[in-house]
Amino acid sequence: MLINVLKSKIHRVKVTGADLNYIGSITIDNDLMLAANIREGERVLIVNNTNGERLETYAIPGGKGEITLNGAAARRVAKDDVLIIMAFAWVGHNEMWGTPKLIFPNEETNLLN
To answer: What is the pLDDT of residue 33?
Structure first.
């Protein structure tokens, strides 16, 4: 049996942009992606703490401090909304699983402290 466990979490970042005309995805500061061990193209769950929305998309690397929702997901956020971004992994029921990688960037700048 496989179970789906939290692998990575970027806790409380602010939306810097929303691009409705982009193909889709969320653009995340590349340093945050590396620190959280989230890979390009990896599926992520996004929780919008500001309005309660939840959505899934895939991650693409972006510039310093960038958190941009693209495509249809852009309709579910506004600039400065606060998000939590999570990635999960499938592991065997008996497989040893460590602590998830939790990242707590500066909420005002979206940069690592």
So the answer is: 98
